[in-house]
Model the fold of this input.
Amino acid sequence: MDERSDGTVNAQVGQHELLREVGRGTQGAVYLARKPGDDRILALKLVRLPSTQPQDAAALQFTAAAKAACSLHHVGIIQVFEFGLDGTWGWIAMEPIAGTDLSRYTTPARLLPEALVLDIAARLAEALAYAHRQGVVHRDVKPANVLVNWALDEVKLSDFGLARGAWAANTGTGVVPGSPAYMAPEQLAGLVPGAPADLYALGVTLFELLCGRLPHAAENMGELLRQVAQDQAPSLQSLRPELPPGVAALVARLLHKVASERPVDGDAVAQELRHLAEAIRPAV
Done:
């Protein structure tokens, strides 16, 4: 695939014809696309392979991540159908989701109803439990990677194929790939993340959707890393005292600094979240 002087790409990637751009991030863009002779519309995500690695190594890592994404078949995970490489770009073709991501509901003025937040988190916990049973760790759970379609009652976790911190960002010395505010202490320390790291990120997401703020925030990366490694997250009970104590207790367990002290079973977390949601859901 060739890049034009204006930063756009030519109209075909692999066998897919690009129709129009529907999203753009720091590492690439998402297009609606289709194959000639096939009326099915797909979402095709392009990602530039990092220039800080030999191209062969970056291509191998992208392929491994995309292959893992293709192996996941769950109602709560965006389905990846195929993937490929085109020069210095990698691409994945996946199901298109009409809707929005959860990042728009992370400010105090736009918080969702509490029971709905807990229901969404339960669905995400179940999706993560499924992925973990397949041996796949997401590594970048955050509101921006959760797509919701309110009309169809769909909640889907995206970017499994692009959540491999080792390749998914053009990193330099001292730069942490991924989304540090959502990353578990062990992940920031450079250890290979497992299921507890994903559930920590789910805890950060739950905290943010309930409070309109992150548990840890700082003006510079060094201070953020110090807070995540050393400082206890603020008590949800102190910020939202009207919520049942069980909600704060669960979030605190998810945000525990020590991985072995966190829940490891997403299905059990989902069951607890649904029980808490029922306790606060308004009677009809």
User: Anything to note?
Assistant: The longest helix spans residues 114-133. The mean pLDDT is 87. DSSP finds eight helices and nine strands in the chain. Helices lie at 55-70, 114-133, 185-188, 195-211, 221-230, 236-239, 245-254, 266-280.
